Amino acid sequence: MKENNxxxxxxxxxxxxxxxxxxxxxxxxxxxxxxxxxxxxxxSAFPEFSAETLKNGDFMEGVQTYLADHxxxxxxxxxxxxxxxxxxxxxxxxxxxxxxxxxxxEAYKAPKNTEKIVGNFQxxxxxxxxxxxxxxxxxxxxASVIYAEKLPSFAQEPDQMGEREAxxxxxxxPKIDCYGALMDKKDEMQLYYRxxxxxxxxxxxxxxxxxxxxxxxxxxxxxDLVAKEVSxxxxxxxxxxxxxxxxxxxxxxxxENPENQLTVFxxxxxxxxxxxxxxxxxxxxxxxxxxLDNLHSLIxxxxxxxxxxxxxxxxxxxxxNSMVPFLxxxxxxxxxxxxxxxxxxxxxxxxxxxxxxxxxxLYNMNTIDTDLGIGGIY
Length: 378
Fold this sequence. Notes:
By secondary structure, the chain is an alpha/beta fold. It has helices at 2-29, 51-56, 58-69, 74-87, 114-128, 143-146, 160-171, 179-185, 201-215, 237-240, 324-327, 346-352; strands spanning 35-36, 41-42, 92-93, 96-98, 104-106, 134-140, 175-176, 226-234, 250-256, 262-266, 271-273, 298-303, 311-316, 333-337, 358-364. It has twelve helices and 15 strands. It is globular. The model has no long low-confidence stretch (mean pLDDT 88).
């Protein structure tokens, strides 16, 4: 009996050793990817070694992050781990709430850089307030606020709305409040994707109507636009943090006005098109990027059939990309800035273009704290 136990223990030790050796070999031999399509982010590079980074712990922390990002079969093991935790009744995993009605809702983290955010907004406003332009700031509440009733009962979220109001008040910029419009429509429309941190086209439309109401624009009715369901199998950034294949999929709907005559010019790639959508992204994991072709430093959109001669400067994060299809109906020209990549400063652009009549700054509260574009808005 004892001899059999020894054989079993020896066999187990050999199997574990082979398993560890195989994974070690796989880790060192496999090609290291720079970008994870499933998670829609760049993976960590191996940290640079120095006596200082070794002493302060940054080097070892970087090594741990590198190993975690490039672990063999990472996506598969993430999915197995998530499935096991959900089966055990866990409803918060890696900062993601397993919410009601199939929603995965990202926990809100109170911003640490409020002073910097407010300061940059103030600098921009100070730079352009003497120009003949109407400036507005729109801060979008996240799904954890609008769908708070879907969160697990134990969820204790920081005061996102209080932080939002503080940024509005301290920045001094004229405020566009879309909270009421989103709350009014939450039972009629799906305003946020279940598997992604973005709002849907319906959420963008609700905020668009708030913008119109507060700036004296007559909004286009949703029923006057052509709706197209372009994807029924979208799994977004929040899904990728769990990678549990049992989770559902989202539908992406886009809206078009057939009367619009659009020219969309991407200044960085020098490409011109007549559509606000790049449907090639429907064949990729990052399907939300079909709106305005993902990331560009400056996009110039001209609509020959707009209902006014007004021109808009839009400084934004990716939430605004799905709102542009509604805004184009009212502006002869829209200049769309992603200030993570546009380095000349939109305030200088406004001063150099006296034909600009309106400025809209739009950021969502979930990523505003880490958005590098905030530092370049002026």
